[in-house]
Records
---
Amino acid sequence: MLRAGAQSVLRFTMEGTWMLDHAPRPLAAHLLFESRDLDEARDKVARVFCPHRLDTVRGRFHARQHHLPGEKLSLNYIEYGAKTMIAPGALRDFYLVQIPLCGGASIVNGGDRYTSDPGRAAVLNPHRETTMIWEEGTRQVLLRIDRAAMQSHLSRQLGAPASAPVTFQGALDLRSGAGAALRRLVLWLVAEADDGAAPLTGLMGRQLEETLLSGLLDAHRHDYAAHLGRSRSAPRPRHLRLAESFIEAHLDQPITLEDVAEAAGTSARNLQLAFRQYRGTTPLAFWRDRRLTRAHADLIAAAPGTRVTDVALRWGFAHFGRFAESYRLRFGLTPRDTLRAALGPGYQD
């Protein structure tokens, strides 16, 4: 038997519309508020998002918000009933993905002007002024993404610090390709929450959040798309391939830039240029990142009795404070949190 949340998701997927009149509202168990008072609704929504102007244009106002928090993002459901004008200005601290289940909205985000509907989502950039008009009867699932988390994730994908915040462009097509896959993932998370699961908690929740961030970067147009494509698909010259192979074979050993250059048959300068051009990083940063990845895998697969210090030393991290900080920046949680999630209730510090 299909659960209520799954029934709603399947209706939307197959018929292109959300039959909310005959099914529970998404995230129904996570009701934040329901109100016919405009000022109350404005205040309650602002506590999750930001202060904003909210005015009715036409129709009967009846607002409600459902809210499911995670670490880097939150899932939300909002309806206002009436046609409403919403003007938050610059969101500043978060990106906002709005997926209409029925109805739609007119969006102004900086120089972008477009409309959203069940086939096209709105993606609001935090560093641009925003004004929206939601049509009467519009109901939306919203994904609030922490700006710092998006910037950190983008930098990891690039292999180097992103110099400016990513700027998404126009409406996000949800009808095919990566956009349709992203929509299905979001609605699956909603269905899991409606079935009583906690999809945004624990180690799996963190991985799902990372997947959502990657999915958005893959699915939508933005000003880093060409850089990401180049870093992922550029063919590697021979000396870079040799260098990467040498590094992979010596992850648990202390090596120097000169060691890697000698193994690759090139100069240290040429090697640095190759890593910068094709990987967006340095040879030693690549080495450190690969060791962090191995440490992460060991912590996830840890057996009872495993200690964080054992794993750190195994992969050449003698300074535990720096290891913990580098690990947190890379994976969004501490080594100890990863080990605790892997071992469950039996874990002891």
---
Amino acid sequence: MRNKTASSIRISAAAMLLAAFALVIAACGSGSGGKIVEGKTNVVTTFYPLYYLASEIGGDKVNAVNLVPAGVEPHDWSPKSQDLDLSSKAQLFLYNGAGLEGWTDNFLKGLSKKSELVTAEMSKGITLIKGNPEEEHEEEGHEGEEHDDHGHSHDLDVDPHTWVSPKSMMQMAENVKNSLVEVDPANKASYEDNYAALHAKLEALDQQFQTELSKTSKKDIVTSHQAFGYLARDYGLRQTAVMGLSPDAEPRAQDLLQIAKFVKENDIRYIFFEELVSPTLANTLASEAKVDTMVLNPIEGLTPEQEKRGDDYITLMEANLQNLIKALQ
């Protein structure tokens, strides 16, 4: 019976990986579609959380362009020549760093020599989570830095998902504000005012997370993707992940069986999955452990539906909090 279960999980894992590969192919056909606007500070961001910060703090003084389109997982995205051309004409390029955008160094080397683009790493000032504690059973020879077929660098020694914690997002907001002031000092007062308003929202969100999660009787969360390390660290939770820091990392059947056992022994009621990655594996594991699945959004990007609804970082994090409360009661 155990071998049959392991075999079925291997098959399901393979199906999930095929779906993830299809997503990569689709992502590689996408582009930013943004344009440079004269008379404004043009800011290019590498993924949604930075676009949100640049738009909120920049206000009407800034034209923010996000490189990764709605519905595309940023781990699976690669820039194209038009993205390089667009960035060369902008004033500011904001990237997360901490190993998230493995393409950044080569991309920036390709900028026009005439470009006056200022680049800034937004994870600076955050105490980064080192190591990969949720992947104790790494295959031999897969330690350290890995590169996939698209040239992405997945540094397994650092967790890049800083923005998933409101505490980290407050530091990132300050970094964005400082970068805008650097390239456009004439509008410093506007940026400072907008930053103060956004900081108040993020501070209130942080307080919500602290207050509500301190009340929960359970502290263990099981996630499909190891994207919630900063959230867990900052709010007293413990994360167990099916896959590693890259959402298309390949799990082993025996690891899945161990997680299923952990779920049963610790009375876990939900396995969390994310919207931009196939839920196949989370569903398989939930079925094996006889529990339900629920969304925990790492907010790496918006879906087209979320864009239409007017969702943003704050509303999606509030939804995350409600799902965490439900799962941890």
